[in-house]
Amino acid sequence: MNRYKTLASNTIILALGQFGSKLLVLFLMRFYQSMLGETGYGEINTIIDTTTLLMAFATLSIGESVIRFGLDKAYNNAQVFSIGIKVTLAGAIACVIFIPLFSLLSGWFPDNSVLSLLDSYSWITVLYVMTGSMKSTCALFVRSNGNVRLYAVDGIFTTFMNIMFNLLFLLAFQMGNVGYLLSVICADICSIIFLSYLGRLKKYFILFGVDREIRSAMLRFAIPMVPTAVMWWIINVSDTFFVSEWLGFNQSGIYKAAYRLPNMIALISGIFSQAWNMSAIEEKNSRTIAKFYSDVFSAFQSAIFVIGAGMLLLIKPIISVICDTPFHIAYIYTPFLVLAVVYSCFGTFMGSIYVAAKQSKRAMVTATIGALLNIAFNALLIPILGNHGAAIATCISFFALFAIRARDTRKTVYMDLKLRKLVTNTICLFIMGAVIIFVTNDIVFFSILTVIFLFVVLVNYRACIKMAKQILGRGK
Length: 476
What we know:
Distance between the termini: 16 Å
Strand content: under 5%
Oligomer: single chain
Largest sheet: none
Radius of gyration: 22 Å
Low-confidence stretches: none
Mean pLDDT: 81
Helix content: over 70%
Number of strands: 0
């Protein structure tokens, strides 16, 4: 199987396992909003965003090492898994220290609504971090071990269990925010058992005799990824915290609803990125790696731009279908968020080069620059423009991150970025965004958006066809 076919095959398997289940969760968003309300929906997203950050600290981002070293045939898989599990277990136990920390910070800043919220849900938040960390490590090892199908099936299984527990705790028991968090915790526990049994993880676990050199190498790679994860967290979710604190949880709930649909682009990209990281690591020593990277990025950016333009075309009717009535206004905030997610996908693609080359420190530096820009523009724009300001700040930080990484990674692999196509597509999305924000007449609204969408398809279809031919073995 050629490398294009391998990449396509892994992407399809992962998509089958994850996209359908994530799409189902998207369509349940109206259910969650009706069960939790505007404020509750904003609160639960703030808690989940916090746990994302805490997981990086608790596990020292060891999952990044599990996938990177697990895919490298030079390392023993049992050693990689055992080290990953032990670090994760140690971090899970250490999570208990976060409980008094929430109370301490809440006492120091009694007027901070976010800290007060986290203090109220401290125990269940920590439990959420512990189970989520262990589930993530087990799942990443299964994928790195070549069992992509089991990894994909686990995605479906976990989502199914999550929905079942949602119906139990939210609909039947009416437990609100606690019920939502318990649903995820219970689903993660089921996933750990599922992966351990079908993936036969027990045979890979070594209680004693861990190789110190492998452990040191994994930690040296993983630890710089902690600040990287923090910086990505700042870029991705700090705007929600700013909005929650300055505009209230009801506005952060609307902003999060606006972000939910553009994040479907990130989901699609994330599925591809999981397969792409595997190919980037396996092909890192290929003599034709530059052409491979250039071809894949050309097709990738074309697909992402077409999906982004399609989302902007349909954003208004889709929001009205999947969101509860108080959240329908969310569509007005999506244009800059779509652009932000598009460029975050490109930045993640460039980040795979750091992973393949084991340059985790460079990943940290570039993410730090993006995070600092995000904080600065959030502080500057949210008081003036509200939710629009948060969206613009996110867009600027992701654009800068991509630009810096694109220039930086050329030192490792010289890629053809197709800049003319990149600029043309970006301008088209900007125009579509302006129409969404300023045009109120529906006929004019959809007419202009449709014309621009068709133009974006025209600009990008050749790259997708070329990639299809290469996958089929007919490309030059």
